[in-house]
Structures are given as C-alpha cells and as structure tokens.
Amino acid sequence: MLHTMCLEITRIVLILFAAFREKMIQTGFQSGLLYKIMNVVNNLADNSKSLLFSANNNSVEQFHSIVAKFIGGKRVNFCLRRSYLARCSGAVISHNSGSFMSRVHKSMYNTSSGNFVKSTERRRENDLIRRKRKMSRPRCRKSLFLEKGRNKNYGVRAEKPDLSEDIFSQKKKKGFFPLCNYQLKKENPLKERL
C-alpha cells in the first residue's frame, strides 16, 4: 500500500517536472537567454579538441609581448623606413636567443641599452650557469645518522654496566619498592571514596 502511494507521487512529480521543463525552455527561447547559452556551448564544443589536448599558445604570446616591447607597445605599421620590420626582426632575435637584448638594441639604435637591461641579462646568464652547474653535479643525500653500524647500547656489543649485580639489586629494592608503596597509598583513597 505504501509503495503504491510512493509510485503514484513519483509519477505525478515527473509529470509536473516535464511540464515545467517545457515551459522553461519556451520561456528561455522567447527571452533570448537560451540562444546565448547555446552560443556559449557551441563555442566550447568548437574548441573542445584544443581544450582536451591542453593546447596553448604561450610561445606566441611571449613573442608578441617581445614585439610590443620593441615597438613601444603600439601595433602601428612604421612603413616609412622599414623600422617596424627592423623592430620585429630584433624581437625575433631576442625571442630565439632568450637574451642579448642589449646587443640587438645597440645594433639597431647605435646607443647603449642602459644598465638595467645589462644587469638583467647578467643576472639571467648567471642563473642559467648556476642552474646548469647544480644539475650537472650528482646529488648526494645527507645521512640521518652519522654512525652506520649497529647501536652500541644493544646486542652483544652493548657496554657493560658499571654496577655489580648485587649492588644493582639492592638499589632497585631501595628505589623501586618505595615507589610502589607510594602508588598503592595514592590509589587507595580513590577506591575508598567510590
């Protein structure tokens, strides 16, 4: 009886949901919101291959940033004296070599590029040399323990105690039994209260 009621309620809810869904789709088409959503989904589907294979254009973006640096950030065709072509050629050389901006600048403008560019290039070259030197050496791990042998406090090689067996047993009786008596006296008041 109870399960038949559940099935009936589920059937009614599904019918109402289907009617609501159709009404929402019609409202979405009328308002134009669904067209915008479909446009976004279509763009996503068109670019799905590049998204799946994690394709990116980082090198292109890097090159364009270098070109923008050389032409002053403006995409204007300086066609009078072929300066745009020269600047793009300098950007290509700089992008391919990874450095040498000061040499390209000096050959293009016949002036020094300044201390900042030179110090940046020097720092990059030193970092590259340091990184190569660090990677070329074999990496040795520090050992956690200096002594590689067995522990001298255990086993056959353990150090012998400096007390004789008789003196040790006497000291044990003097020290251990008073502690046990103290512990028993300490526990008894708790037992009496309960």
Describe this structure in words.
- The chain has 194 residues and is mainly alpha-helical.
- The chain is 71% helix and 0% strand.
- α5 runs antiparallel to α6 (101-109).
N/C terminus separation: 57 Å
- Round the Cα radius of gyration to an integer and report it: 41 Å
| Order of helix and strand elements from N to C terminus | HHHHHHHH
Give a quick account of the main beta sheet: strands, pairing sense, barrel closure: none
What is the approximate shape?
A: flat
How much of the polypeptide forms β-strand, as a percent range? under 5%
Q: Which residues sit in consecutive blocks of at least 5 with pLDDT less than 50?
A: none
Please work out how many helical segments DSSP would assign.
8
Estimated structural class: mainly alpha
Helix content: over 70%
User: How many strand segments?
Assistant: 0
- Mean pLDDT over the residues: 72
Signal peptide: 1-17
Organism: Nephila pilipes
Keywords: Signal
Protein name: YqaJ domain-containing protein
Per-chain topology:
Blueprint: H1 2-31, H2 33-46, H3 48-52, H4 58-70, H5 83-97, H6 101-109, H7 115-136, H8 165-193
